[in-house]
Amino acid sequence: MLNLLSALCAINAPSGKEAPVREYIISQLPDDVCYRVDALGNLLVHVKGKKPSKRRVMLDAHMDEVGLIITGITPEGLLRFSTIGGIDPTVLLARRVLIENSIEGVIGATPIHLLPEEKRLEAPETDKLYIDIGIKNRSDANKFISPGDTAVLEGGFERLGEHGILSKALDDRVGCAVLLKLLQTERDYDYYVSFSVQEEVGLRGAKTAAFAIDPDCCLILEGTTAADLSGVAEENRVCALSHGAAVSFMDGATLYDKEMYHETLKLARENGIAVQPKTRPSGGNNAGSVHVSCGGVKTCAVSLPCRYIHSASSVCDTRDIESMYRLAATWLRHYCSKELS
Amino acid sequence: MSFNLKEMLKDLSNASDIGEVFEAEDIVLRYLSEFADCRRLKDGSLAAELPSSRSETTLLLDAHIDEVGFIVTHVTSDGFLRLSPIGGIDARMLPAQRITVLSGKPTKAVFCSTPPHLKSKEQKVKPLDELFADTGLSKKAAEIIAPGDVAVFSVKAAELYGDTVCGKAMDNRAGVAVLLGVAETLKNKELPVRVCMQFSRMEELGLRGAKTAAYDIDPDFAVCVDTTFGSYPNIPPHKTGDLGRGPMLGVSPILSGDITARLKRTAAESGIPLQFEVMGGKTGTNADVISLNRKGVPTGLLSVPIRSMHSPAETVQMGDIEAAVKLLSNFILNWEDHHA
């Protein structure tokens, strides 16, 4: 699983440019599944299991990551940019970026020596930041860069501490890795998987994916904010690393089906899988699109707790990935086999 | 050893030289000891004398070799670190920034970034003493990391377009690279002046190492090689030089007018591009203290412009470093004592 995750995190695919992740996933799909790519670029996979499922079950993870999009070139050859998805400018300052998978750049910063005392704790603003690719005038830069080119923050995959992983794009390559492993192993029942595009720019891909699959119920696998940092009060932590997969009852985009929420927690506990509620109704994920599609879909979100999410250095715990995988597999079997009440 | 200045600079950038970790010194020693007379000064720092001079006049070339970074002040029971800065550190660029703690076994950590739901409305950035770094080690952190351990930005040098190189510690490994380039240029030549090089420690803590090293070497003249601010949006243009237009010659009342004029003349005669950095007094470089060494040392200052100083994203152009090498080498080869 970690090899799979490391390979997926290494791929650069901001929203709208998910093709490299999709191609990698397709290359890893077993021969006995059917797949197609829809008009937006979602990868939709159907598994024909040994038994028919009691209902149409959909599992979803998004392929895209947050990134940057070039909006213009200054006369000095520096690149202006906007963010793709929500990125705090403090995690952009003095960082390396890779543009269109080929051009190295760096987001420059004013030297502290020239920063007036009263500005030293002022948050930087994204539209006052520039990418420096080493070119010193606009006409040369024009040969290599066009507005609309995209970039990702460089953030190599490495181990942190005893059980930690430090990488860019854990949100949501971890969901992709879990689903890919399920596709390689789970054959008991029929089910559908979507690897969706454009989650970071408004949960867009999942809309058309859910329309195409038209599921009875859906499980979203995500990465979510963990604020279990030293000094942060318990009620503000959202979820915590090493405490298991996080299950949502509400977030900024979805009020989750209560019965399914409790059922999912119960399933985890009955099977000895570490699990925790996501205790703050903030953020949002593809559930926001799926649960209101096709007349309504009962939807559940299971997330990997990630510190410093949407930066090039997000941190997660390998034991939580294992819990997430086991819970997803258990959930899948349960909802494929459970009689309708 | 074949000499490639760009590869040397990248190696120097990737090395850590801070506190009592001296990896960059090791690189310099490995290279210079093949042909120069290297010795340890009383303060522990590295000095080297170029061979082949019968002159009794000593010209000192100084470059500080230390870098900015952090020192661990506290390790929490849940695996987080409190750190203080070594040198000037901009707290605004720290969230989610990776560092390497140089304890017995180098340990990775990452500065915490405040999740959006915990951000205050006024959007102030946390100062370093309110920031934690995350080791992912929980209780075990205290077994591996101790207060007093130092840390540096965790980033590998990379090449950007053309001859631009990007990485940490270009301030002042760019200056160190200039000195190594000069040594390489002059190594088989008869020199009209005795050339000593000092790789000063603790510049970022207030020009401390240059003081003790220069006392030990006791030079007659000196040139400091450091980095200065490269032009960039939102920085006053009069405080910067452009990358790619040559090194910057310091002009200041505390610097030797004679050495400065000779460097300027050498550049003009050799067709080397040169920019000027005019300061009304102190330069903020080792030149401030070396000029006051013992009975006084006429001192010049040559700086390589870099962008994003004191960050893991410092950028520098090899052309500026190479021009500085050529300028200093010709300055030495043209040395005439009676001009001094």
Report on this model:
The complex is a heterodimer of chains A (341) and B (340). Chain A is α+β, with helices and mostly antiparallel strands and 341 residues long. Chain A folds into 2 domains: 2-65 and 168-337, 3-Layer(aba) Sandwich (Aminopeptidase), CATH 3.40.630.10; 67-153, Peptidase M42, domain 2 (Elongation Factor Tu (Ef-tu), domain 3, Beta Barrel). Helices cover 25% and strands 26% of the residues of chain A. Chain A is built from 8 helices and 17 strands. Chain A has an 8-stranded mixed β-sheet, sandwiched between helices. Chain A has a 6-stranded antiparallel β-sheet with strand order 5-4-9-6-7-8. Chain A has a 3-stranded antiparallel β-sheet with strand order 10-11-17. In chain A, a hairpin with a 3-residue loop joins strand 10 and strand 11. In chain A, helix 1 packs across helix 4 and helix 4 (170-185) crosses helix 8. The two termini of chain A are 35 Å apart. The model of chain A has no long low-confidence stretch (mean pLDDT 96). With 340 residues, chain B is of the alpha+beta class. Chain B folds into 2 domains: 5-67 and 168-339, Zn peptidases (Aminopeptidase, 3-Layer(aba) Sandwich); 70-153, Elongation Factor Tu (Ef-tu), domain 3, CATH 2.40.30.40. Chain B has helices at 5-14, 23-32, 141-144, 170-186, 208-217, 257-270, 287-290, 318-333, and strands spanning 17-18, 21-22, 37-40, 46-49, 58-64, 69-75, 80-86, 98-101, 107-111, 133-134, 150-153, 158-159, 164-167, 194-200, 221-229, 248-251, 275-278, 299-306, 314-317. Chain B has an 8-stranded mixed β-sheet, with helices on both faces. Chain B has a 6-stranded antiparallel β-barrel with strand order 6-7-10-9-8-11. A 3-stranded antiparallel β-sheet of chain B has the order 12-13-19. In chain B, helix 1 (5-14) packs antiparallel against helix 4 (170-186), helix 2 (23-32) runs parallel beside helix 4 (170-186) and helix 6 crosses helix 8 (318-333). Chain B is globular and about 70 Å long. Chain B starts with a helix and ends in a 7-residue tail after the last helix. The model of chain B has no long low-confidence stretch (mean pLDDT 95). Classes of the chains: A alpha+beta (341), B alpha+beta (340). At the A-B interface, strand 7 and strand 10 of A face strand 9 and strand 12 of B.
